[in-house]
Amino acid sequence: MTTKIETILARALSGYDLSPAEGVVLLQQTDPALIAAIRTTADQLRCEQAGDTVTYVINRNINFTNICEQHCSFCAFRRDSGEAGAYWLDWAQILEKATDAVQRGATEICMQGGLNQQAKLNGSSLPYYLRLVETIKQQFPELHLHAFSPQEVQFIAREDGLTYAEVIAALRDAGVGSMPGTAAEVLDDEVRRILCPEKIDTATWLEIVSTAHKLGLPTTSTMLSGHIETKDQQIRHLSQLRLLQQTAMSQGYPAQITEFILLPFIGQEAPKPLRRRVGRDQPVLADALLLTAVTRIFLGRWIPNHQPSWVKLGLAGATAALNWGCNDIGGTLMEEHITTMAGAQGGSCMEVETLQAAIHSLGRPYCQRDTLYHPISPCLPCSL
Ligand code: SF4
After folding, report:
1. Atom 4 in ligand 1: residue holding the nearest Cα
2. Mean pLDDT, to the nearest integer, of 1-24?
3. Residue 200 Cβ < 6 Å to ligand 1
4. For position 339, what pLDDT does the model report?
5. Does the Cβ of 204 fall within 6 Å of ligand 1?
6. pLDDT for res 259
7. What pLDDT shows up at residue 276?
């Protein structure tokens, strides 16, 4: 087995793409020495592909409503309309949060919400979403709006009888700068039937993200890991992201995937059936770190920016992930509801100085970036 792992890792270091079978073999390892070799390879590839500097973004989350028509089996955020804890921010509250973000140095607003059928203007959904964008952009044109998941795009398209391209183009023209690659969970319809049976299927998620790339809207990419999925399904998910990015690049689409974010499952406050099935409330850090390393090895040539989630892993876990293939520590967020309501212990806001200190503790340089990974302060190259 040792020779087999060494061969796989040597191939990766020579610039070859791993096969899905090779990716699964790496994920199956339990020998500490082999896991250490996987980590070292991921760290070296991170250095070659993204440099030594760890980046961060000053951003603010705005989850404009938690009223949602769906019932994902992992979601502790959603509420029915009129239920205790249900909320729907008005325009003044949205603007107040954006103003506060700008005063605190934010370059980005990340905006996602529940699928709220009441969120309509003149009976249509799209005008409501456009007003969300315009409310912020008219006041703060310099802010980058990273907004609306592929699931939200499908929701608007369905409600208004529009194509995905029409919805994406309208949002882009109103001022959306990029789309979160969330709602991906695990891109496997067997898993989705249990995890999020009402959500878009794998093919639709891929179609919407690819349409965004064709229309010049960059996206991120994510995976919700550590629940009911197998290692094969994890690698199949990564393979589909790799192919999506290869297609965007080979076809010369004007936008691509900017980063990959691993989102380990938090079950503490999640609905009971899935919690019982998974059997634990918080992520297993060792599993998340090995998957982080294998993701770097499997995807890094195509998607060079990898980010851990400090909300899910805690700052110490996210800092550790910077040694397992990650080159970015994410954003300040200022407020986070979706994962915090699920019982995450990482907190819901980070000060810039706290992120910088975590990066500095590893002896690595840091720099502030914008949403699309353009440095706002100077970045240093790999020093290996
Ligand atoms: S994960 Fe999103 S779509 Fe699913 S129930 Fe929660 S808010 Fe609704």
Report:
1. 72
2. 94
3. no
4. 76
5. no
6. 98
7. 85
Whole-number Å distance, alpha carbon 39 to ligand 1 midpoint, is 34
Place of tokens 């070296």: 44
Euclidean distance between CA atoms 267 and 364, whole angstroms: 33
Instruction: Determine if ligand 1 sits within 6 Å of the CB of residue 78.
Output: yes
- Stated length of the chain: 384
* Pairwise CA distance, residues 247 & 11, whole Å: 23
With a 6 A CB cut-off, is 114 part of the ligand 1 pocket?
yes
Strand (E) positions, the chain?
54-57, 59-63, 108-112, 144-147, 176-178, 219-225, 257-264, 306-307, 328-331, 366-368
Q: How far apart are CA 186 and CA 265, in angstroms?
A: 11
Check residue 65 and report its DSSP letter: B
Q: Is 246 in the pocket of ligand 1 (CB under 6 A)?
A: no
Q: What is the pLDDT of residues 24-53, one digit of tens each?
A: 999 999 999 999 999 999 999 999 999 999
Q: How much distance in Å is there from the Cα of 235 to the middle of ligand 1? A: 24
Domain boundaries, the chain: 2-368
Q: Which CATH class is domain 2-368?
A: alpha beta
Task: Quick: pLDDT tens for 233-261.
Answer: 999 999 999 999 999 999 999 999 999 99
Q: Best of 61, 64, 71, 72 to mutate for ligand 1, by most ligand atoms within 8 A of CB?
A: 72
| 3-class state of residue 290 by DSSP | helix
Give yes or no for residue 162 CB within 6 A of ligand 1. Answer: no
Does residue 384 register a pLDDT over 60?
no
Tokens 């039937």, located at residue = 193
Mean residue pLDDT of the chain comes to 95
Who wins on pLDDT, 111 or 267? 111
pLDDT of residue 50: 96
Is 369 near ligand 1, meaning CB less than 6 Å away? no
Widest pairwise Cα distance in the chain: 65
